[in-house]
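Researcher: Checking consistency across runs. Here is Mitochondrial protein again:
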Amino acid sequence: MEKAKEMETPMEMNLKMNKDEGKLPKDARSFQQVVGSLIHLTITRSEIAYSVGVISQFMQDPRTPHLEASKRILCYIKGLVDYGLMYEKGNDFVLQGFTDTDWAGDTAGRRSTSGYCFNLGSVAVSWCSKKQSTIAFSSTKAEYIAATMEAQEYI
C-alpha cells in the first residue's frame, strides 16, 4: 500500500456490489480488520461514511471486489492525511442540518440509504450514512424516513 496511487474519491461512481461477485480472498480476517479501522476513522472523516457502510455489509463473506473497494478507500485517505476537523475562534456557530437519501439504491433488498450531516458554523459535527430498516415504496417516503432520522439526532 505504500506505493499505491492516491485516489480522488473513496468509491467509484455508481458502483454496485453484491455478495456473490468475485472470488474469496485468502485471508478474510485482514479485510475485516481494515473495515473495522475504517469504521473507527469515520468518527473524524465523514466523507468516507457511505463507502465504509457499503463495504461493511460484506464482513462475514468478503470477496475480492470488496477487498479492492476497501483498498481504494485507503488510497483516498492516503491523499488526505494532513486534513482534519478545524474549529476557528470567532466563527458563527449556527447549527444547520442536511439530509438526503437514495430511493431503493440497494439492488438486492430494495432498501434506501439515508444520510445526514449537522454543521456548527462551517464544520461538520455529526453525520451518519445508514441503510433504512424498512422498504420505502416511494421516494417521498424514503425522504420522510431520512428526515425522521435527522430529527432524532437533532433532538
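Researcher: Does this match what you'd expect to see?
Model: One thing to look at in this run: Residues 139-154 form the longest helix (16 residues).
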